[in-house]
Design brief:
The complex is a heterodimer.
Chain A lengths: L1 E7 L2 H17 L2 E6 L6 H12 L5 E7 L4 H7 L5 E5 L8 H8 L9 E5 L16 E7 L6 H4 L1 H5 L3 E5 L11 H11 L5 E3 L8 H20 L10
Parallel strand pairs in A: 2-5, 2-6, 3-4, 3-5, 6-7, 7-8
Chain B lengths: L1 H19 L4 E10 L6 H12 L8 E7 L1 E4 L6 E4 L14 E2 L6 E9 L4 H7 L1
Parallel strand pairs in B: 1-2
Antiparallel strand pairs in B: 1-6, 3-4, 3-5
Helix pairs in contact in B: 1-2
The chains are: A alpha/beta, B alpha+beta.
The complex binds zinc ion (ZN).
């Protein structure tokens, strides 16, 4: 017999993500998933932007990692609450991973939760976590062919951060070509050129994140549970 | 390797729907996967072999319909598949406008029957 199904293969993860999202919305907490390949500079970007964010916002970080706690230690050194999530070899975080880790944070005392996903440009983009927005990183050290190689990472992004721009004079990275490819897979997301080392673009990243939190807070204050800042 | 996670979900979903339909063995899974997912077919085949072992899908075949990235030519309006990241219209050689889609990841249907698989028998005992 033939049994028609037509279901999303990752519907179980999506259902857990929806539960996470409901929980965030109830608490008025904004959640951002930060994605990018290994060495794309996710932790360095957080180290640069967190000191700005924490002036006005209560922020915590979930640190996804295959095995080590090195990145979590770098975040903890900034005085920001951090929960380490090791995937024990898995190449991506899933919504149930996040669900389990949320118990280790005092969520109702937070404005913004940033999830630093496992350093992998392919797998994590497949798995919703319950985030309100995705920020995808592309470092100029990785090469300008990455949007073509890992299109899903950029297709699903609400903000694309081009990182390590201080290296542009020293690497073979065609910024215009990368932007063209990014626009092909995602015409809507803003592109932000940054350098964690020089501080370039970090204020604008902080403003983008604060605006995301602010729009959520304004909506909550108006008494509506509906957020509009994520498609 | 997200191929394994996806193969495991496919097998689980197929098994559930087979049970619901009163079938014990899945012989074929028909799924649709968009090119944006960047699933490697070799990796997907070996992941599926690992995932199906000891389940109702143990003897099943995985049939994948690959959905390409598509674009529309701004000159002649034809819709074409973007192969090898070539965005130019095959006739006009101008850059096509991206169309939605290409990110599909769906189990469309299964073929199932009531033969016992060794795996399913183990699970029932
Ligand atoms: Zn044409």
């Amino acid at each position: 017999m033939n049994v028609p199904i037509v279901r999303k293969v990752l519907e179980k993860n999506d259902a857990a993500a929806a539960q996470n999202r409901e929980r965030f919305d109830r608490l008025g907490l904004t959640c951002v998933d930060l994605l990018g390949g290994a060495g794309s500079g996710k932790t360095a970007l957080l180290e640069a932007v967190l000191p700005i964010l924490t002036r006005n916002l209560r922020v915590a970080v979930l640190e996804g990692d295959i095995a080590t706690t090195r990145d979590a230690e770098r975040i903890a050194a900034l005085g920001v609450p951090v929960v380490q999530l090791t995937t024990e070899g898995g190449c991506h975080l899933t919504a149930p991973h996040v669900q389990r880790a949320l118990g280790e944070l005092t969520l109702d005392e937070l404005d913004l939760l940033i999830i630093e996903n496992v350093g992998n440009p392919i797998c994590p983009a497949n798995f919703a976590l319950g985030e309100h927005a995705r920020v995808a990183l592309l470092s100029v050290a990785e090469g300008d062919d990455k949007p073509a190689k890992y299109p899903l990472l950029f297709r699903g992004a609400d903000l694309v951060v081009i990182s390590k721009c201080d290296l542009l004079p020293h690497v073979d990275f065609n910024l215009a070509a990368a932007k063209t490819d990014l626009r092909r897979v995602n015409a809507a997301a803003p592109l932000l050129e940054t350098s964690a080392r020089c501080g370039t673009g970090i204020d604008r990243l902080a403003a983008w994140l604060a605006h995301l939190v602010g729009s959520a807070l304004r909506i909550d204050a108006a008494g509506s549970a509906v957020r509009t800042n994520r498609k | 390797m997200h191929e394994l996670a996806i193969a495991q979900q496919l097998v689980e979903l197929a098994g559930e729907h087979a049970r619901r339909a009163g079938a014990r063995r899945v012989t074929r899974l028909n799924c649709r996967i968009g090119a944006l997912r960047r699933l490697e077919s070799d990796l997907m085949s070996s992941a599926f072999e690992i995932a199906r072992a000891g389940t109702a899908c143990e003897e099943a075949e995985l049939v994948v319909e690959c959905v390409p990235i598509r674009a529309r030519c701004p000159i002649c309006a034809q819709v074409f598949a973007v192969a090898d990241w070539n965005w130019r219209c095959p006739d006009c050689a101008v850059e096509g406008e991206p169309l939605p889609g290409g990110d599909e990841l769906e189990l469309i249907s299964i073929d199932a029957d009531n033969e016992l698989t060794p795996g399913a028998a183990e699970h029932e005992s």
